Amino acid sequence: MGAGQSRGSNTLVVPQASQALEQLKYEVAQELGIQIPQDGYYGYMATRDTGAIGGHITRRLVQIAEQTLASQTGR
User: Fold this and answer.
1) Per residue, what are the HEC states of the chain?
2) 3-class DSSP state of 39
3) Residue 3 falls in which region: left (phi positive, over 0), alpha (psi -120 to 50) or beta
4) For labelling, which of 54, 60, 61, 72 has a CA lying 20 to 30 Å from the CA of 19?
5) Which of 11, 25, 12, 14 is CA-nearest to residue 54?
6) What's the mean pLDDT in 33-44?
7) Which of 23, 35, 14, 34 has its CA nearest to residue 60?
8) Continuous segment of H or E residues that includes residue 3
9) Separation of CA 71 from chain center
10) How many CB atoms lie within 10 A of CB 29?
């Protein structure tokens, strides 16, 4: 580990990934009919709703990864 890096940091290696994940979060929330707070504070949201958004994002990322791998291996 280099200087300034901690074991538990969630720093994204690719800065554009943060923007893409943010966009994906809003898309998933809209599909689920969940309103994301304008001020960015999630404390008033139901845990069920925030968990649903996270779960759907994870599923979507897995699908994207599988499609990418499949296209790279020529399946």
Assistant:
1) CCCCCCCCCCCCCCHHHHHHHHHHHHHHHHHHCCCCCCCCCCCCCCHHHHHHHHHHHHHHHHHHHHHHHHHHHCC
2) coil
3) beta
4) 72
5) 25
6) 89
7) 23
8) none
9) 22
10) 19
Give residue 2's identity as a one-letter amino acid code: G
pLDDT at 42: 86
| Length of the chain counted residue by residue | 75
For residues 7 and 35, the model is more confident at 35
The amino acid occupying position 74 is G
Instruction: Count CB neighbours of 62 within 10 A.
Output: 10
Burial (CB < 10 A; 0-12, 13-18, 19+), residue 45, is middle
Helix axes 47-73, 15-32, angle to 10 degrees: 120
